[in-house]
Amino acid sequence: MALMKVAVLGAGRLGTVLAKRLHEVGYPLQVADPHEGKRQALERLDGVTVFAESSKAVQGAECAIIAVKPQYVGHLAQEISENLSEQAMVISMAAGITLEKLRTWFPNHKVFRAMPNLASSIGAGTTALVGDAPERIVTMLAAFGHVVPLDESQIHAFTGVVGSGPAFICRIIDNTVQQLQTHWADIAPEAMQQWLLHMITGTAEILSQKNLSPKALEASVAAPNGTTLAGLEAGQGDVFDLAKAIIAAAARSEEITLETQASGGP
User: Fold this and answer.
1) Which of 61, 136, 151, 227 could make an SS bond with 252 (beta carbons 3.0 to 4.6 A apart)?
2) Each residue of 6-26: pLDDT tens digit?
3) Phi and psi dihedrals of 86, rounded to 5?
4) What are the chain's domains?
5) What does the pLDDT look like over 157-170, one tens digit per residue?
6) CB neighbourhood size of 24 (10 A)
């Protein structure tokens, strides 16, 4: 199946990420943004046609992706309505713009909402999709990673977990590294951060590939009197304290070493 011709309307941070990723996987693109500086970053990409006017970018497009701020969507809809093919589908990535509102602006077109997250730029993201979209739309969005069909009532929860979640994970990692530095000043923070990143990535892969619950995986590594159980107990509270758990697990590791030596073990 031939790839759709896609118009990306808006070349800000989100629009640029979308355009570059779709370009990487081979989609023919037409991109629009009124700001010359934003257009220049995309003009260098082979096969990407860049316009100042969105009305020109949608000509011949089979799908138009709206990647502008919510307050500009209504004006954009007026600008492109005459040049948008009757068969073209519209995907809005503007926060807060409902399907009902999109249908008032695009009454003759199939409209959908989508929300990608940070890792979409490398094809490892998770994108919410609202609306009964055809396979061609799902396939296109899969260029950004996993596609999760949602009821529109679930979009706010998705925003909190998946849209904003990467920043929360980054804060947890950064705070944990800072806390561990006070305990192990001889270990470079860059090394500690890499240990955490590899641990988190590997754990996520196991949970996903083996279809395990977090509780099941936790139980499989938490041996009685072991390092993991010591860490779990130390870190437990209203909010789990990762740094405290890591330090306790390390301390238990030292204890086990001393106990083994004292008992005449290897």
Assistant:
1) 227
2) 999 999 999 999 999 999 999
3) -60, -30
4) 6-153 (3.40.50.720), 165-262 (1.10.3730)
5) 999 999 999 999 99
6) 13
